[in-house]
Amino acid sequence: MPVPDLILDTDPGTDDAHALCMAALAGRLAAVTTVAGNVELAKTTANALFVLSEIGADVPVFAGAAAPLAQPFHGAPEIHGADGLGLVPRGPVRLAAAQGHAADAIVSLARARPGALTLVALGPLTNLALALHRAPDLPGLFRRCVVMGGAIRGAGNHTAFAEFNIASDPEAAEIVFSGWPGLTLVPWEAVLGLPVAEAEAEAMIGGPGRAAGLIRRINEAHRRNVGFADAGGAVLFPDPAAMAVALDPACIAERASHAIRVELAAGERRGETRVDWQDADIDGPRLEIVTRLDPARTRGLIRLDRRGGQT
What we know:
Layout: E1 6-10, H1 14-25, E2 29-34, H2 41-55, E3 61-63, H3 77-80, H4 102-112, E4 118-121, H5 126-134, E5 144-148, H6 164-168, H7 170-179, E6 184-186, H8 188-192, E7 196-197, H9 198-204, H10 210-225, E8 234-235, H11 238-247, E9 252-258, E10 260-262, E11 273-275, E12 287-293, H12 295-302
Parallel strand pairs: 1-2, 1-4, 2-3, 4-5, 5-6, 6-12
Antiparallel strand pairs: 7-8, 9-12, 10-11
């Protein structure tokens, strides 16, 4: 078995649950930190504990930020359901959250194993911004940092210009993007470039394992109770795609390296991720921006059946 080397910062969320299963079943998950995002912090923390309990993964979970740095919390219950997981039926959960704030856990875990860990952020970047405030040297302590977020061509999924994770806490995203050189960003456009037909998406979670069964139950409850579906007759896997990149960098087919500025002013463009494509305007570190994913390799890692090895 590999040595667990991933810290997952997340706001489960239906697709976050799938990504969480991917990391746990790959034997790579060292810790989970939770943040308010898709739903409130108490619910994202409960969801992480529920998923881990259901698949038999005993991994520490640290609760973090309950609100963005500078704006009210808004959430996305209309997409994920009021509980974040499609109102899936639940039994008793055998796990409890660990003591301590997520930002402190991120710093202490990184200091304990400098250069060994990868940080994967699938929700608003509030915990990462708080951790950076505590430890400005934090980027140098991690081997990699992979973030799902941003709309690099200005076509958002939350507003006309902004992607949900970044729009949920623009100030935190600006702190992270300006303070974490070499961060790997998996933006909304890379996700849009990997649509999966509904029949194939069903097959990807068709295996007999506990994780596949759990994700089927969540998806079935979501269809029954929420009814939100991706547009265009295809299924999108935002957080699982980012997790695939974290598990295997070869999932990146094309990439670019540029600085990014997050729009913080009030108005319709707040939360927009503006990429300095000409390397002329933004005084900040260059980030690795995923512009295209390898379809076969990425889908293979997203699978939760026997052929994908995630059972």
